[in-house]
């Protein structure tokens, strides 16, 4: 086993709130310069940039997980992560079915552009990606797990768009694989405030929207290989695998 450094919450130019410098090429170059072994580009309600980032990262030995930061009906952000293109496409379809017919105003929210590996614009996505899906948190969780993905509520203790801000607590019946705590939160402090939680796996990521943020916050995984399956086992501390904040 070895330690893999992972930042699993990164926004690209496809997210209206992210900087236009967050192109797939720049994301991979930054991940390399920060010594990251595993990354996930998790745009709001979209997985579209996963394949191009994976293609660009592969020659550098950086593993790319597919995924999205979904906004559930409760307006709680959740990271949904996948290994394969088949899973990604199925989840993208679920998002598109549940994304409301509200259109983006780039002057108000920012541009939502899909680009290719040369940084050339392929399309502007018309529907506003920061809307809440017509799907509640339990439905999103069940869909992610049916497809074999990992379900990780994002920045759970942040004062906006989090489980705690929206619901007041983390529902004990919610089947999450890990919890992402806010990047400035002390894990011991978090557990002290949320004693009802049963030994959850806690992780941190950068939630980078700007180049200078990428890789500044990360989590180490002691695992055999950089796969979603190994990370799931690290969350459960199977066979000595573990997550080190
Ligand atoms: Zn968020
Ligand atoms: Zn985010």
Can you walk through the features of this model?
This protein has 245 residues and is an alpha/beta fold. It contains eight helices and eleven strands. The protein has one domain: Metal-dependent hydrolases (TIM Barrel), CATH 3.20.20. 27% of the residues lie in helices and 21% in strands. The strands form three sheets. It has a seven-stranded mixed beta sheet with strand order 7-4-3-2-1-10-11, with helices on both faces. A two-stranded antiparallel ribbon has the order 5-6. Strands 8-9 form a two-stranded parallel ribbon. The radius of gyration is 17 Å and the shape is globular. The mean pLDDT is 97.
For the residues shown, what is the average pLDDT? 97
Helix content: 25-40%
Series of H and E elements: EHEHEEHHEEHEHEHEEHE
Largest sheet: 7 strands, mixed
User: Per DSSP, what share of the residues sits in E-state strands of 2 or more residues?
Assistant: 15-25%
Spatial extent as radius of gyration: 17 Å
Give the termini separation.
17 Å
Please state the structural category.
Answer: alpha/beta
CATH class group: Alpha Beta
- CATH topology (fold) name: TIM Barrel
Poorly predicted runs are none
Q: How many strands in all?
A: 11
Domains counted in the coordinates: how many? 1
Cofactors, ions and other ligands in the entry:
zinc ion
Q: CATH superfamily name?
A: Metal-dependent hydrolases
Shape: globular
In CATH terms, what is the architecture?
A: Alpha-Beta Barrel
Number of H- or I-type helical stretches = 8
- Largest sheet, spatial ordering of strands: 7-4-3-2-1-10-11
């Amino acid at each position: 086993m070895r330690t893999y450094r992972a930042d699993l919450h990164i926004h690209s130019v496809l997210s209206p709130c992210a900087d236009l410098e967050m192109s797939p090429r720049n994301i991979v170059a930054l991940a390399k310069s920060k010594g990251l072994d595993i990354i996930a580009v998790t745009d709001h309600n979209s997985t579209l940039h996963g394949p191009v980032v994976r293609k660009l990262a592969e020659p550098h030995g950086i593993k790319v997980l597919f995924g999205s930061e979904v906004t559930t009906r409760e307006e709680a952000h959740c990271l949904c992560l996948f290994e394969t293109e088949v899973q990604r496409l199925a989840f993208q379809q679920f998002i598109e079915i549940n994304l409301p017919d509200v259109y983006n105003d780039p002057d108000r929210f920012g541009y939502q552009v899909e680009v290719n590996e040369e940084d050339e614009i392929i399309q502007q996505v018309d529907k506003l990606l920061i809307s809440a899906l017509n799907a509640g948190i339990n439905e999103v969780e069940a869909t992610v797990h049916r497809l074999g993905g990992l379900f990780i509520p994002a920045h759970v203790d942040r004062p906006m768009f989090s489980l705690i801000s929206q619901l007041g607590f983390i529902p004990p019946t919610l089947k999450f694989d890990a919890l992402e705590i806010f990047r400035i939160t002390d894990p011991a402090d978090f557990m002290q405030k949320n004693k009802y939680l049963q030994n959850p796996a806690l992780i941190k990521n950068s939630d980078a929207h700007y180049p200078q943020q990428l890789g500044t916050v990360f989590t180490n995984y002691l695992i055999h290989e950089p796969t979603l399956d190994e990370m799931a086992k690290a969350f459960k501390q199977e066979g000595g695998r573990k997550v080190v904040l």
